[in-house]
Amino acid sequence: MKNQQRLIVGLVLALVLIVFALLNRQPVAVNFFGATFSWPLIIIIVVAVIIGAVIALLVATSSRVATKKQLAALTADNQRLTAERDKMIAAATAKAEAKVKALEQQLAQTQASAKP
């Protein structure tokens, strides 16, 4: 559903851009690093949109790479902490079982000495 909405919005924006560009076909003087060009406005608009799309793609890609690195680091931390927790649980369980066994032996001795 979300992808369909994005597709529809993208198509509407593309249609608006195309209509706008077709209505603005007159030549425009462009100064670029000291050189002057006279191009139709439609070409200027299309080039500006492409440059903007490339910039947005580069920003999104760098953000995604940083997020992947952070996810990898957090996953490693999670695995380390899970292993540490499991070791601590095993140690506490072994200690509790030893204590229970000692108390059972103590109870058996008490019961044996209490019998006439």
From TrEMBL:
Residues 24-84 form the Lipopolysaccharide assembly protein A domain. Signal peptide: none annotated. The chain crosses the membrane at residues 41-60. It comes from the Bacteria. Residues 64-113 form a coiled coil. It holds the Pfam family LapA_dom. GO terms for cellular component: plasma membrane. Keywords: Cell membrane, Coiled coil, Membrane, Transmembrane, Transmembrane helix. PANTHER family: MEMBRANE PROTEIN (PTHR41335:SF1), MEMBRANE PROTEIN-RELATED (PTHR41335). This is Lipopolysaccharide assembly protein A domain-containing protein. It comes from Lacticaseibacillus nasuensis JCM 17158.
